# Entry
Amino acid sequence: MSFKILVTDPISILGFDLLKKSGFEIIDATTDKRDINSILGEIHGWIIRSGTQISKQHLELAKNLQVIGRAGVGVDNIDINSATQKGVVVMNVPDGNSISAAEHTLAMLIALSRNVQLGHSSLLDGKWDRSKLTGSELQEKILGVIGLGKIGREVIKRATSFNMKIIGFDPYVNQNQFDEN
# Structure
């Protein structure tokens, strides 16, 4: 009998490849259009992201379920009490998206400072008013970062490459972690 893993939210092809190389049978519910409830009785593992809600009813149907893997930080979309009562291990990957989130933050910062959206909109209207698209450089600008956890720190690393001045705040982080020795 093979270990069957249900995937109900999109994950990277690298994730699928790793699961296949490890010998797992994968049921990809993002492409398999069967009713989820009809599949639950045969699965041993379940991989989700934020798009799937796992309720007590799901857990009752998943008689062979041993583990739920949440790709991301929280587990608020899983009935933890019911999973615990059934002996189902629930785990998450809190660091999984830190780099992506930090890069996305910088991408949005750059897009805003350089008026990318205005340029895109004007091109769609068949215009190119270059004088309205100048924007401003990030160099020497001040960036305020609220929250100095993993994502905040990754944003700071990337922002320093633009020679930005960084101001950070986090009531739960000690100042000595950022003081130079």
User: Anything to note?
Assistant: The longest strand covers residues 142-146.
